[in-house]
Amino acid sequence: QSGLQEEVQKLQHSAQSASVSPAVLPVTTASLTTTSSSPSGFLTHASGSHRGFHGDEIDISDVLWSQQEINRLSAEVMRLEAELGHWRRMSQASSTSGTANGDQ
């Protein structure tokens, strides 16, 4: 149970730090909504075509890629928060039913 509580605290801390200052760029493009959640897509882009910033030059592809990553990670945080809520309810339900069964 303490392992679960530690995981809950880690997720809460991650969610809080992500929601404190979300970095959202004012870019509206249809391609921003189509993000890949596969790690291989991320690794290919990170090691292949994404070369980072060169001096003060910021390429539009870098901005778009960064925004897609922000969107993907934000969606992942929301998914994990929903999963956390589910497991928290399951834990509370099992502890409540466990005490009720012990009384019988």
UniProtKB/TrEMBL annotation:
The keyword DNA damage does not apply. It comes from the Eukaryota. Residues 63-90 form a coiled coil. Signal peptide: none annotated. Residues 23-40 have a biased composition (Low complexity). Keywords: Coiled coil, Receptor. Residues 1-53 are annotated as: Disordered. Residues 11-20 have a biased composition (Polar residues). This is Thyroid hormone receptor interactor 11. The gene is TRIP11.
